[in-house]
Amino acid sequence: MTTPHGPQTALGVRNFPLRGRTFGDLPAFVRNFARVKLAAARVNHESGVLDEVRRDAIVAACEEILDGAHADRFPTPLVQGGGGTTANMNVNEVVAARASVLAGVPVHPNDHVNAAQSTNDTYPTAMALTALELVAGPVTALRELAEAFDRKAVEFAGTPHLGRTCLQDAVSLTAGDTHRAHAAAIRRVADGLDTATAALREVPIGATAVGTGVGAPAGFGDRVTAELAALTGLPLRAAENRFDALSHLDPYAAVAAAGSRAAITMAKIAADIRLLSSGPRGGFGDLTVPAVQAGSSIMPAKVNPVICEYVMQLSHRIRGSALTVDCAVADGELELNVMEPVIVDALTTIFADLTAAAETFARRCVDGLRWDGPHRERNLAGALDRWVELSAAEGYEAATHAVTNGAARA
Q1: Closest CA to 34 of 94, 85, 75, 86
Q2: Do residues 70 and 40 both lie within one domain?
Q3: Where does the record place a coiled coil (predicted)?
Q4: Residue from 296, 297, 321, 391 carrying the catalytic annotation
Q5: Residues 236-273: pLDDT tens digits?
Q6: Alpha-carbon gap, residue 286 to 376, rounded angstroms
Q7: Is residue 24 part of a domain?
Q8: Residues near 218 by Cβ (< 8 Å), separated by ≥ 6?
Q9: Residue 93 within a domain
Q10: Cβ count near 323 (within 10 Å)
Q11: The model scores a pTM over 0.90
Q12: Vertex 299: Cα angle to 293 and 305 (nearest 5)
């Protein structure tokens, strides 16, 4: 069964050369747009805007999209001008074409599928639902990584190693201490990302063009929001101030910042593990990372910390995508921010890269870490524990003198 898209979709494909993702490459976004249209159709019928036949046909067409049908009918570039109008029209045209077949009467993309709606409230509503759905991926992956570090903390609870501050020898601690700190940090940023998306549960449907609700029946936004809450199982609520919801997208900057923070924290830990595994002869050599592939095309038996480096590189892209969101949020003008498409694209990258980094780090590196580096015990011998204890007992100057004389004799 093939449902054609219409003329506005074709114009969007022609006007915006594809650079990266299409609208259809983000099935969650397509599904959530269909949920908005389905909910609106039900409320429009209750309000006397849609007859029963067209309501049922629109609902059925949307349900087919939710089941994965017509997936090839959303070819417009994800990043597009016009604040997402092309994407909204793409959905309207696909739903109208299919609903017309199902109903046996004409169903118009604007008059029926888009009744009482505007791109300006449907797009950000579907966008919020999509972010709420997709954030589960990175949050789950980050928590998996935290659990991997918890297991390593138990496995190496009694394994001491040299601590370092300013890259100089300090006092000793255990590998268990180190990995418990890793787990705590990753769990904290996972919770932060999850919390940041909570503001997106407030959706602007019913605002129509600029927030006034012009063209929509009384109570339309509240009733559609209730339908969407039932469809998604999310605790959604209508935006308290719809003018604000259309004009200011700072909640997305907060989500992007939380994603960037998670990436920075994960990359810092990866960089530390990379440093502690350096060597095996000329570096720190405290621990060993899994040898997942050849480290060199010219140097035999070389092992590189490739997973750590993968995590670090993805963090760079995540931070760049977070900056993209910041720029897009800042570029909203007057009653509407039309930069939403690039925000969707950037958040998709952030979520996908966080998920890939956390899962790969946990499964291909952390799970196989061993504190059996060739220099761990030798490095540990340089720990300053005894001198700190001497300082506490006899004073800093006496301990400094003892350290200096001991170094001179050595």
Answers
A1: 94
A2: yes
A3: none
A4: 296
A5: 999 999 999 999 999 999 999 999 999 999 999 999 99
A6: 4
A7: yes
A8: none
A9: yes
A10: 13
A11: yes
A12: 40
